[in-house]
Amino acid sequence: MAGMQTEHTIGVELRGAAKSYRTAGTVVRAVRGIDVSIEPGETVALLGPNGAGKSTTIDMVLGLISPDAGTVSLLGGPPRAAVAGGLVGAMLQVGALIRDVKVRELVAMMAALHPHPLGVDEALELAGLADIADRRTHKLSGGQAQRVRFAIALAPDPAILILDEPTVGMDVEARRAFWLSVRAFAARGKTIIFATHYLEEADAYADRAVLMSRGRVVADGPTSEIRGRVGTRTIRATLPEADTTELASLPGVNSADRRGDAIVLICSDSDMAVRALLDAHPDVRDIEIASAGLEDAFIELTADPDHALADAEQQEALA
Amino acid sequence: MRSLAYARFELVRTFRNGRLLVFSLGFPLILFFVIATPNRNEHNFNGSGISVPLYYMVGLVAFGAMSGLISSGSRIAAERTDGWTRQLRITPLKPSAYFFAKALTGYALAGVTMILLYASGISLGVSLGGGRWLEMTGLIVVACIPFAVLGILLGHLLTADSIGPAVGGVVSLLALVSGTWFPLGSHGLLHDIAQFLPSYWLVRASHVSLGGQAWPAGGWIVVLAWTLVLAVIARYAYLRDTARV
């Protein structure tokens, strides 16, 4: 089976994939034709606000739903074939774990359903469950339950591991331990796709981020590149008296905001802006210049300037 | 091997659920003793030629097995709500293996109900020849197949909060019109309608005590037809049931 992973140059590929839902007479275009291509061994974060289409995309990749248009392929074949071949493991966003079983029994059963699983002990160990393997599933904390879901995802020894909001309910320490395990698994040459709201997770653990908004891919590349694409810098300084409207009109400044005595300037050209600021306000203190965070990029790239356009499209789809 | 792993898992899980066992096994037993004990010496119940303990033994096996098998739907609906069904869908587990495990679990519960009621029946004087016991048991097992399928079907159609009333209503109605609580007589509208229900033939298994054939060809056809129709719909319901609930 290891051979199968190296034969394919493409791990996961979506081409023009689109999916709409009809709810209460309205058509919701959850995913509007996206092209994403992920190589074997890549770790990719799927980012986006609620309703961006991340979960629908994941369902299409897992073969749980079929796209209305376009294609989805895993290791060169349809998702169902990859699933049947035991090449896919997934940690889904779900409610409670199935009841009345011990952690080890659940993981062992899931392993037994697959053609070339991990050893049960290895899966439990990787997910950090060795010490609670004999506990009943309905007596676990939220973070422990998430680790059980992780072990279920690892049990098939999948070539492709899909994690949908995997760290929800975990505390900081559990989160760090979880990502260490994911990295260890990725180091075995596995393809990993994870959906998350946490930008720092994408930044720290993904080779690449696919940023979605309103059913479209709005950015796709290394997280550093996405940050750079926005091209803005932020100037923070202490300046109690100044008027924000006046500050916003300084050359190189896009917008200005006040937080107590401090001002925050979002700048397209911070060099020009800082000179202008010093000229206009020689008493300015505590100047800091920082490149925009992924979060700023996220907000700028996913902001929707034309709701009207989207609504018009929705009407059109209805007609 | 793989399908057996899941079936075994389901069996272990179900028989560990104490509350489920107490209610699904205890209720038919209590009803049996409450109804049959005062009338234990009535040997020609409502002119049917069948004794009260035998009639209610089979009637409550029918009731207990039906509710045991259909209520597997309640567990499925809860599993769907928790996302377990979706998790299973991304494994190589085949639909046939899934159906097998669910039906087997339902039958295991129904089987325990059956054994407990047989023992209770014998304690109130039910006595049949060995061949008659086997024939009756065989007919009950066959007549339960549509209900095993119906349970799975309802589980994949309904949600966890709507399935309780649905299962309760379906079982009560079927039990009533199929003669679980009193013999239907040999003609009349109710009797004519009941002929087309598999639960009627389940209760009719008690007719083995009269000798001759408990089921004419029509009984086999009704049970087979319901099984096929429900199985086709249940398979369809399962295959399309991949959405979040």
Short description:
Chain A is an alpha/beta fold. Helix content of chain A is 37%, strand content 28%.
Which helices and strands, and how do they pair?
The complex is a heterodimer of chains A (319) and B (245).
Chain A: H1 2-7, E1 12-23, E2 26-38, E3 43-47, H2 54-61, E4 69-74, H3 79-84, E5 88-91, H4 103-112, H5 120-126, H6 142-154, E6 160-164, H7 172-186, E7 191-196, H8 199-205, E8 208-213, E9 216-221, H9 223-230, E10 233-238, H10 244-248, E11 253-259, E12 262-267, H11 270-280, E13 285-291, H12 294-302, H13 307-318
Parallel strand pairs in A: 3-7, 3-8, 5-6, 6-7
Antiparallel strand pairs in A: 1-2, 1-4, 8-9, 10-12, 10-13, 11-12
Helix pairs in contact in A: 4-5, 9-12
Chain B: H1 2-16, H2 18-36, H3 52-70, H4 72-81, H5 84-89, H6 95-123, H7 130-157, H8 160-177, H9 189-194, H10 198-203, H11 217-240
Helix pairs in contact in B: 1-6, 2-3, 2-6, 3-6, 3-7, 3-8, 4-7, 4-8, 6-7, 7-11
Biggest interface, chains and residue tallies:
A-B, 33 and 26 residues
Strand content of chain B: under 5%
How many structural domains of chain B?
Answer: 1
Number of helices, counting only DSSP H or I runs of 4 residues or more of chain B: 11
Q: What are its keywords?
A:
heterodimer; A: Rossmann fold; Alpha-Beta Plaits; 2 domains; four-stranded antiparallel beta sheet; 13 strands; disordered N terminus; disordered C terminus; B: 245 residues; mainly alpha
Your description of this structure?
- The complex is a heterodimer of chains A (319) and B (245).
- Chain A is 37% helix and 28% strand.
- Chain A has 319 residues and is an alpha/beta fold.
- Chain A has two domains: 2-227, Rossmann fold, CATH 3.40.50; 232-291, Alpha-Beta Plaits.
- In chain A, the strands form three sheets. Chain A has a six-stranded mixed beta sheet, with helices on both faces. A four-stranded antiparallel beta sheet of chain A has the order 11-12-10-13. A three-stranded antiparallel beta sheet of chain A has the order 2-1-4, with helices on both faces.
- In chain A, helix 9 packs across helix 12.
- Chain A is elongated and about 70 Å long.
- Residues 1-6 and 307-319 of chain A have low confidence and may be disordered.
- Chain B is mainly alpha-helical.
- Chain B has one domain.
- Chain B contains eleven helices and no strands.
- In chain B, helix 2 (18-36) packs antiparallel against helix 3 (52-70), helix 4 (72-81) packs parallel to helix 7 and helix 4 packs antiparallel against helix 8 (160-177).
- The model of chain B has no long low-confidence stretch (mean pLDDT 89).
- The interface between A and B is medium-sized, with 33 and 26 residues.
